[in-house]
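Please supply some protein, with fold tokens.
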Amino acid sequence: MKFDTILIGGGLAGLTCGIQLVGQGKKCLIVSSGQSALHFSSGSFDLLNQVNGEAISNPIEAIDRLSILNPSHPYAKIGKANVVSYARQAKALLERTGVETVGEENKNHFRITPLGILKPTWLSVPDYAVSPDDKALPWKKVSIFNIAGFLDFHPTFICEQFEKMGTQSDILTIDTPELDILRRNPSELRATNISQLFENETAFRNLAGIMRKGRNHSEAIIIPACLGLNGNSISKLSAMIDCPVYMIPTFPPSLAGIRSQRRMMKYFQKSGGYYMLGDVVNNIQIAPDGSFQVTTGNHGDVRFCSSNLVLATGSFFSRGIVALRNKIVEPVMGLDTYSSDDRNEWYAENFFDDQKYQYYGVKTNDTFQVMKEGKVIENFYAAGAILSGFNPLKEGCGSGVSLLTALHIAGQILKK
């Protein structure tokens, strides 16, 4: 089968690039091994939160400084003007696929973590609790509801953090007969299973009744992120209770991340893209004319051919790059990677320090074309977390790098 572009990796970067290309009439194939980092998402997308350890409020204003301090950063390669343009395009693309967001590229807002702490971010899904201020919440009194027996949400910690910011909290429990089905096996009491249970209208009405009765004049109701995966929504629940309801992310798996990936994948396929889920690339060969021939685990000797190749397999977490005893490798094609030859330099002993291995990844030129044995491979690009030169945790830019590099690469392909 022949394609304009084959994308290896079906997470945020791969889907974004694929959606942009098929939207312009290109024939694309995504090969995805399974769960991506989106399944562990916080429900927010970060653009840039820190530069050189200093918190920033306006990501765009900080791009120039970031580029001077780290010329190899993906944002430095993209350029400030393109960062602004792609950030706006990314928000529009997410909303086209059904992933609605709130936030702007020139001012971070603050999401509430599973432990009740405020963290800066760029975009958040509208059902999630956020604040425009890093010192206070937009409510004086809230009711925090947890599911009886649900261990991935910690209302006590959240309540303590809320009190420090001047917000009083009541902690209440949701217990309905339907939950007994999940409690028979503690491993089944997960956010995704709870969401599916409350898609039943009777269970959903019981849930609304418990919240309406227990809210006690609160300005808002806070619940764990365990509703709205497929059906009944937070906006519907808010209307039934006559009180705004907001979710706070739980520990993984992430309902918001799974929902986002499903919607983006469905949009990609409806737009004409081909998505092979649960498959891995075994071999990549470059033909004499510069085109690529790809074989996968599920399709034996069948060759998928394309003019362009995009590698979006993620970092260590997704095994896009792998740490061996004495070196960092890219396992699909043995591409050049950036890392230190001295293993002792890979990490700092203090867990919370800036870890050097977070900057490791595949080497590329300024247009994100990959390299092997020091030579650029034309029309073979890398996008997202697999790239070197940035620290997604310390800098708070993981989602932004995935979205913006994917759009930049799509633009390079479309120019041809």
Observations:
- The CA atoms of residues 327 and 341 lie 7 Å apart.
- DSSP finds twelve helices and 23 strands in the chain.
